[in-house]
Amino acid sequence: MYGIKKAAALVGLTPITLRAWEQRYGVIVPERTKGGTRIYTEQNINDLLWVIQYKKEHKISVQQAMAMLKGLKKYDNDKHLGNITELRDTQILDNIFEALANYQTVYATHTINTLLSTYDSEDVFHHVCLPLLYKVGEEWEKGNLLVAQEHFISQFIRQKIMHFYQAIDYAQTHPKALAICPPQELHNIGLLLFSLFLQKRNVDVLFIGENTPIEDLVSLIEINHIKLICFSVTMEEHINDLEAFIELISQQKPGLDFVIGGYAAPKVSETYQHYVISGEIEDWKVWFKQSTFSSK
Fold first, then answer.
1. pTM for the whole thing?
2. pLDDT band at 292 (very low <50, low <70, confident <90, very high)
3. What are the chain's domains?
4. Helices in the chain by DSSP H: which ranges?
């Protein structure tokens, strides 16, 4: 246990700085005696040293380092409880967003990599990366983000998910699915995440991605014995192309199953509503359990 002067000397700061950090960030808060004197524990000292070193190594602000420490402490609690759904509500999301909006990948990369080494990748992508994408969309619509910033952040997240997607091995005997976007549809991160979800459950997914011409897919479906086609549609104006393709391919290849996700998916016509799935992973798990793939 240390008084503020001794604590400051141990970490190479001044008492004024320690008081300021306590009041400003509220992350490292010493105990108090009955008379109100600050008493720093060994954990307090270790936390201060961690913030100082982390800030130096990653060239970030004290505020960002404190937010990271606060997040990690919260994650430790969540880990013991087996629940990380509250990750969406932490300050760390705002700090990742701020870093990427300023084209600073060091902090964002280290933070997400730390989470991926601690939690299941699915949980990190759904409770950190997807909320981050929602925030990007909201800020872009408000005019607070440039197109370049939106593309930069989206590409950063896409690369993280793609790394895990490409790392999964599969057997030739696994059932196959096709993941595509309708013509003119350019947003595919949700589709990529659903593809990763299937790959982890032993479904081999051919990820074709965005802006896929319908005429190029018929032979691909036949050659690869595709059983399921997954679509992502985020713009209402692309729904007609999507429904036309489903009708066409259903006539040529009866027995195919379909899944439709994306922001505009709920707007498809009543005929295709039974193919629609939400973006929540719990809904994906329910759908998969009820599908013909769960027993493969």
1. 0.71
2. confident
3. 2-79 (1.10.1660.10), 84-167 (1.10.1240.10), 177-294 (3.40.50.280)
4. 4-11, 15-25, 42-58, 62-81, 91-101, 105-118, 121-124, 130-141, 147-167, 189-199, 218-223, 239-252, 281-290
